[in-house]
Amino acid sequence: MKIAKALPSDSPRPRLGLVEAMASNRSTLLLLVVLALSITVYYQITLAQRIWIIALPTGLLILNFVLALATRDILKNNWPLMIFHFALIALVLLVFAGRMSFFSATLELAENEEFLGQEEYSEQMENLRQGPWHRYGLAGTRFTNLGFQIRYLPGIKRDDTTNRVLLVGPDGSRQSLVIGDHVPLVIGHYRFYTSHNKGYAPIFEWRPNAAGESVVGSIHLPAYPTHEYQQALQWTIPGTETELWTMLAIDENLLPEDREFEFRVPSEHRLVLRYGEQRHELKPGDELKLPEGVLHYRKLSTWMGYKVDYDWTRPWLLATALIGLLGLFVHFIVKFKLLSK
Fold it and tell me: Are 162 and 170 in contact (CB under 8 A)?
């Protein structure tokens, strides 16, 4: 009778097939390391399509999990834990879809100025960023900044911001709303939040000498009080090549550090204007005669900076996260009950 010899401990192991290799724990560990490195690279580069740097290892990790389910019977009799893992996959896919279709921008509106959503991106928006799948959906949107109130705590610490806006619907209906830093104006999946970026806006009327109608508009001085001592800018009068350097000189203390106060327009102020070598000071109601026309300083107003954000995946992310947590909760409840027997 022949006795089979045991294989030596150092004999080569049988090679795994491609599917088994992809479903192995070693592949999981390797892909997790690759994903961590990809995330690091993602935040170091500025390529337009950099999302694919994370999408590839993430997709391979999802494939690794699905193949592990199919070939190794992982979680076969543990439905709560399986639900948790599938919820994780859904979360990853939703995050990917959100980044591919996101939209963000900033916007500045003077008091009583209206935002007009056009067929293409509004010229009023700045710092636009968007995913390759985003389709602009603010055409026809109209709302007006009716003014804001900001309370400051002692030490000039910004507290609550309330901003009244007038939203005009597609049918011409009007709705007055109050928004803030955490209470947005919601239009579809677009959200308009107030920001710390706000300041003063001198309002001018320009009356040209040549044939043409008068123009009323405002300039937005640097943010206040962030740039308290830099309330100046260079601007060009519309329809001309005349450049004016304008500075707001405030003749009262608007920022007391020892008590609470509210952001307000200074009653004691003047505008310092430089035209070439000439220097002029204007108070509300004053005029400046220039070769091309007359510049009338009407009053000092304010402007508010908004953050525009779009992400349709938010409610789905919340629902998926709750389902995943529920599955994990049930899993541990069952596990601890079994251990207690």
Answer: no
